[in-house]
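Tokens in:
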């Protein structure tokens, strides 16, 4: 009787280990329509059914131009970059559950919100907006996101 219980327990551990491996396996997601990473990171990583999107800057890959003078246009470009990455993972903004927004000037919070609002429907993702001293490449806004399919 003891052997049967041990064997049953061992088989469940193997199944659980295999299941955890499948969930935790990670895959890099890339989109040519979003800026290439400027460091040792992926545009996004898919683990299980969760997509972790790295912070996106207001860089337009077609014009090779970083928007640094208008918060509304900068935020729109960031959101378009996120949309491209979501699309590469077969997702859209309805899958986004969390965003982190970093701005260099919190007085432009209303401009960010006005653009951000156009990409989501209720229930809106959880999020925070944080003012920082500086962002890479002199950007004025950066947004990262987490999406679940």
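Residues out:
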């Amino acid at each position: 009787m003891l052997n049967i219980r041990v064997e049953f327990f061992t088989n469940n551990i193997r199944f659980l280990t295999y299941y955890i491996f499948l969930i935790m396996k990670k895959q890099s997601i890339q989109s040519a329509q979003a800026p290439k990473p400027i460091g040792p990171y992926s545009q996004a990583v898919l683990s299980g059914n969760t997509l972790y999107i790295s912070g996106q800057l207001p860089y337009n890959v077609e014009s090779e131009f970083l928007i640094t003078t208008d918060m509304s246009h900068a935020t729109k470009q960031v959101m378009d970059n996120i949309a491209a990455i979501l699309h590469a993972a077969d997702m859209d903004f309805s899958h986004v559950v969390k965003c982190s927004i970093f701005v260099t000037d919190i007085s432009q919070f209303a401009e960010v919100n006005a653009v951000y609002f156009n990409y989501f429907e209720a229930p809106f993702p959880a999020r925070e907006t944080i003012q920082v001293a500086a962002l890479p490449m002199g950007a004025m806004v950066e947004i990262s996101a987490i999406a679940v399919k």
